[in-house]
Specification:
By secondary structure, the chain is mainly α. The protein has two domains: 51 residues, no CATH class; 87 residues. It has a two-stranded antiparallel ribbon with strand order 1-2. Helix 3 packs across helix 4 and helix 5 packs antiparallel against helix 6. The longest helix has 48 residues. It starts with a helix and ends in a 7-residue tail after the last helix.
């Protein structure tokens, strides 16, 4: 990109008053020497003046406070979700540890045989199935409890 093209790229910003002082002087100096850039700078100047005459949007006075409250609420909700997820994972892991420990204790106390309806409940398969069901029930109860304790509220 040569000097002329770089100045031409700054013409709209110069007309809008968005350039730093040294860049603005550089554009004005070039415009005095280059007729096409001078015309384009004047055209951008007209656009700028007309745009400034358009009605400006008015924002509600409490927009900043509402936005800050919403951001804080969203941040707090994310922290609650993260904490709830960690709690659910911890409860599931705890449930598996308790089930495994109980299995070892039950096998030791019963000598490896606890027959109910023709099924040895301290065998690996029935014990894992029972533990799995109890773990999911525990996780479901925990999820319902956590959901009731921290209801999601919408902040306007």
């Amino acid at each position: 990109m040569n000097a002329h093209e770089s100045i031409r790229a700054k013409l709209a910003l110069a007309a809008a008053g968005a350039l730093q002082e040294n860049d603005l002087r550089e554009v004005e100096r070039h415009a005095r020497e280059c007729e096409s850039c001078l015309r384009e700078l004047e055209l951008w100047g007209e656009y700028t003046r007309e745009l400034r005459q358009l009605p400006q949007p008015v924002f509600p006075s409490n927009l900043l406070a509402r936005t800050q409250a919403r951001v804080l609420h969203d941040h707090e909700s994310a922290l609650h979700r993260r904490r709830n997820g960690l709690m659910l994972c911890s409860l599931a892991a705890y449930s598996w540890v308790v089930a495994f420990s109980a299995w070892i204790v039950a096998r030791t106390l019963t000598g490896g045989t606890l027959e109910v309806f023709g099924t040895n409940l301290v065998d690996v398969g029935p014990w894992i199935l029972t533990s799995w069901v109890l773990t999911w029930i525990t996780a479901g109860v925990a999820a319902v409890t956590l959901g009731r304790r921290n209801p999601a509220r919408r902040v306007l």
